[in-house]
Amino acid sequence: MRDNDFEAVFDPHALPRAVSAIGTELVSGGFESEPHVHRQAQLILTTRGLVTCDVAKGLWLVPPHCALWIPGGMKHSVRAVGGVELYILFVDPDLANELPAECCTVGMTPLRRELVIEVSRLPPLYDCDGPTGRLIQTMLDQLATAPVERLHLPLPTDSRLRRIADALTADPSNRATIGEWARLVAMSERTLFRLILKETGMSFGRWRQQFQIMLALERLTEGDAVQAVAFDLGYESASAFITMFKKVLGEPPGKYLAARRSQVTTEGTG
């Protein structure tokens, strides 16, 4: 299924329900949508594959153990890598008061995932009262307590910083210093440091580190070896890359991914 087909068969704006959802499997080489806006808040959950979203001046990664929460009215585009299975939930703003006011990636326990999946299986004009209403309220209560994951890469809007971002995308192993980047874009090192901090909320080193985490998770989720990813990102050894990964996400890559795969497996066999 292509993204325009997906939009054609499900229009949340046309349904007289405050909460609606759809699940689908995309077996093609993935898809990419044009930037668009929904009045409703939106949750994008993947149970297989990897999805990235460009929203709120940032790039958000949605691996299988997470979901992306997008408040209503935010322009965003979506890209899926390879074959994916995903569920998209739409929530009327009046019911989203207890949910995050900002775009964020949230952790999904098996219970939270199963609740979203169950809601996606409801008929379009489901009964709002009784068991169905309680099911939806339980789902919203669970989502309101979901922890925020650090899978966000702020994207600068300044054209000079975009040049740096594009260069790092083309060659993520580039280890140029901030002074070298400053000379490349014809700025002083101090000015570049301040501009990066203003536009991303991070130092240059922290921003580049987060950039590498995003690339690494995408590669690792697709099955690439840790050592290959480490070398492609410019690390002299796999251990140096593992140390950085653990510092940012709290666990080494193998343990981090195994725990998330275990969550998905538990859900599928529960």
What does this structure look like?
The chain is of the alpha+beta class. The protein folds into two domains: 3-149, Jelly Rolls; 156-259, Arc Repressor Mutant, subunit A. It is 44% helix and 23% strand. The chain has ten helices and nine strands. It has helices spanning 3-9, 110-120, 130-144, 159-170, 178-184, 189-200, 204-221, 226-232, 238-249, 253-269, and strands spanning 19-26, 30-32, 41-55, 58-62, 66-70, 76-91, 104-107, 148-149, 152-154. Strands 1, 2, 3, 4, 5, 6, 7, 8 and 9 form a nine-stranded antiparallel beta sheet that branches. Mean pLDDT is 86; it is low at 1-8 and 264-270.
SSE layout:
Blueprint: H1 3-9, E1 19-26, E2 30-32, E3 41-55, E4 58-62, E5 66-70, E6 76-91, E7 104-107, H2 110-120, H3 130-144, E8 148-149, E9 152-154, H4 159-170, H5 178-184, H6 189-200, H7 204-221, H8 226-232, H9 238-249, H10 253-269
Key words describing this protein structure:
single chain, 270 residues, alpha+beta, Jelly Rolls, Arc Repressor Mutant, subunit A, 2 domains, nine-stranded antiparallel β-sheet, 10 helices
Report the span from N to C terminus.
28 Å
What's the gyration radius in Å? 20 Å
Mean pLDDT: 86
- What is the CATH T-level topology of the largest domain? Jelly Rolls
What is the name of the CATH superfamily of the largest domain?
Regulatory protein AraC
Topology, number of strands:
9
Low-confidence stretches: 1-8, 264-270
What would CATH call the class of the largest domain?
Mainly Beta
Give the domain tally.
2
Name of the CATH architecture of the largest domain: Sandwich
Indicate the percent of residues in helices.
40-55%
- Please identify the structural class as seen in this structure: alpha+beta
Counting H and I runs of at least 4 residues, what is the number of helices?
A: 10
Beta-sheet strand percentage? 15-25%
Biggest beta-sheet profile: 9 strands, antiparallel
Listing every helix as H and every strand as E from the N terminus to the C terminus, the arrangement reads: HEEEEEEEHHEEHHHHHHH
